[in-house]
Amino acid sequence: xxxxxxxxxxxxxxxxxxxxxxxxxxxxxxxxxxxxxxxxxxxxxxxxxxxxxxxxxxxxxxxxxxxxxxxxxxxxxxxxxxxxxxxxxxxxxxxxxxxxxxxxxxxxxxxxxxxxxxxxxxxxxxxxxxxxxxxxxxxxxxxxxxxxxxxxxxxxxxxxxxxxxxxxxxxxxx
Length: 174
What we know:
Layout: H1 2-12, H2 18-22, H3 26-29, E1 33-36, E2 40-44, E3 51-60, E4 68-76, E5 89-94, E6 100-108, E7 117-125, E8 133-134, E9 138-144, E10 153-154, E11 172-173
């Protein structure tokens, strides 16, 4: 029976388990991957007195035995920091054993009808750089305008004008 078991292991490449016990399993020594819960995020604009937030989650594929730092910085695209969103630059630290972190981004509301606007968030693995793999390093955030499109109204229902009379003034309001 022992010879048969050794022959089967030799034929099919099975091990006796010694490599697993010694810790040479490649999966357990590979660094965890850090992923974003999405590569794009939408935040409603809100009114001029409101600040709306959108949250993104960073996740480690497995717990690490040491702390891992990831920095992030926002940058303008069609949205301008201080006008449409709150600029942010910080570092997220995963303590040993932690797997999830959340980051909130803030839009600055207004009462003006304007186009949706966007800004970028770029992520960089800080320390230790060989302790993890940063799978996604960019997030695009869209601020969705929620103000109604303005309407033009003219204060005259009907106006009869003869040629050569001169100038006619009409009030129009937004």
